[in-house]
């Protein structure tokens, strides 16, 4: 799994003119899934996301986690995070999982994040043409790949 995490003061997802999810203070998480991802990756990544100390403390130092600031999550599926761009100018998405595998993994991540955060998270709609709006705070943007846990 590969995620791009953005600290936001607001974010929303709209599909066909209807808001499917929106948050204020929290994290916009864009998530790409590949066939080698496992339930262990979901558990590890959820824990990492909610405990990242990327929110400012009283001294203005990034020392607080999503849990500490009672922040929210907007989780968006994004297969293009697995784009291969080595050859040519048209990205290949061969590493991105097909919906048959990706949808259940996405749904498991939603449940894991809700369980770990102890509240409902907001989402987009898997496979839909989504319009994402955000106000990046900082800006703070973090990329995490479960295949590189040692970094």
Task: Please describe what this structure looks like.
The protein is of the alpha/beta class and 151 residues long. The radius of gyration is 15 Å and the shape is globular. Helix 1 (39-51) packs across helix 2. The longest helix has 19 residues, at 99-117. The protein contains two helices and eight strands. The two termini are 15 Å apart. The chain has helices at residues 39-51, 99-117, and strands at residues 2-15, 18-23, 26-32, 55-56, 62-64, 72-77, 122-123, 131-145. The model has no long low-confidence stretch (mean pLDDT 96).
Radius of gyration (Å): 15 Å
Task: Look at the helices and sheets and give the structural class.
Answer: alpha/beta
Order of helices and strands: EEEHEEEHEE
What number of domains? 1
CATH class: Alpha Beta
Low-confidence stretches: none
Strand percentage: 35-45%
Approximately how much helix is present in the residues? 10-25%
Taking the alpha carbons of the first and last residues, their distance comes to 15 Å
- The global form is globular
Within CATH, the superfamily carries the name D-tyrosyl-tRNA(Tyr) deacylase
Question: Which oligomeric form is depicted?
Answer: single chain
Mean pLDDT: 96
Task: Characterize the biggest β-sheet.
Answer: 6 strands, mixed
Any guess at the CATH architecture?
A: 3-Layer(bba) Sandwich
CATH-derived topology: D-tyrosyl-trna(Tyr) Deacylase, Chain: A
Instruction: Write down how many β-strands occur, each being a DSSP E stretch of 2 or more residues.
Output: 8
Count helical runs: 2
């Amino acid at each position: 799994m590969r995620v791009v995490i953005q600290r936001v003061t607001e974010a929303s997802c709209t599909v066909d003119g209807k808001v499917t999810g929106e948050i204020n203070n929290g994290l916009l998480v864009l998530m790409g899934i590949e066939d080698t991802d496992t339930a262990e990756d979901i558990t590890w990544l959820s824990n990492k996301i909610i405990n990242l100390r990327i929110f400012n403390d009283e001294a203005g130092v990034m020392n607080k986690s999503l849990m500490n600031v009672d922040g929210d999550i907007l989780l968006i599926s994004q297969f293009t995070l697995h784009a291969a761009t080595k050859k040519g100018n048209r990205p290949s998405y061969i590493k991105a999982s097909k919906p048959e595998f990706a949808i259940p993994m996405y749904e498991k991540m939603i449940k894991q994040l809700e369980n770990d955060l102890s509240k409902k998270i907001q989402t987009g709609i898997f496979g839909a043409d989504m319009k994402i709006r955000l106000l990046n705070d900082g800006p703070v943007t973090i990329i995490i790949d479960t295949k590189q846990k040692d970094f």
